[in-house]
Amino acid sequence: MTENQISYKVIGAAIELHKTLGPGLLESAYEAALAYDLGLLGLSVQTQVPMPFEYKEVRQSVGYRLDLMVEKKVIVEVKALDTLAPVHFAQALTYLKLSGRKLALIINFNKKALKVVFTES
């Protein structure tokens, strides 16, 4: 399955989740529900995936964690914010760089209309 095919399913599930729950919950609630729904669609989903990095040939584990990794190809960052800030885009780009993946989705559930942003390496 390609990154585009995966993202299509993720966005569809996110839209359905947002229609059902609406805005106003914690990120952790949306993350858990989205992971559950993606699993029901038959997708492999990992949650809170550690994202270490190497510095001068030493592995550093400093607490970076991906919200969701879908099919080991697409990173999904779940947000519940009034507004996405530049740091959220920088975070997604950093995760792409550290993981070697090509596509990250930032999904903001705390809006009347669901907001999805694509970030590509």
Written overview of the protein:
- The protein has about 120 residues and is α+β, with helices and mostly antiparallel strands.
- The chain has a single domain, classed as Trna Endonuclease, Chain: A, domain 1 (3-Layer(aba) Sandwich).
- It is about 40% helix and about 30% strand.
- It contains three helices and seven strands.
- It has helices at about 5-20, 25-40, 85-100, and strands spanning about 45-50, 55, 60, 65-70, 75-80, 105-110, 115-120.
- The strands form two sheets. The protein has a five-stranded mixed beta sheet, sandwiched between helices.
- β2 and β3 (about 60) form a beta hairpin.
Task: Spell out the key features of this protein.
39% helix; 7 strands; alpha+beta; Trna Endonuclease, Chain: A, domain 1; five-stranded mixed β-sheet; 121 residues
Label the structural class.
Answer: alpha+beta
**What is the CATH architecture annotation?**
3-Layer(aba) Sandwich
User: What summary fits the major beta sheet?
Assistant: 5 strands, mixed
Mean of all residue-level pLDDT scores: 92
Silhouette: globular
Kindly summarize this structure in a few lines.
This protein is of the alpha+beta class and 121 residues long. The chain has helices at residues 3-21, 27-40, 86-99, and strands at 45-50, 53-55, 58-60, 65-70, 74-79, 103-108, 115-120.
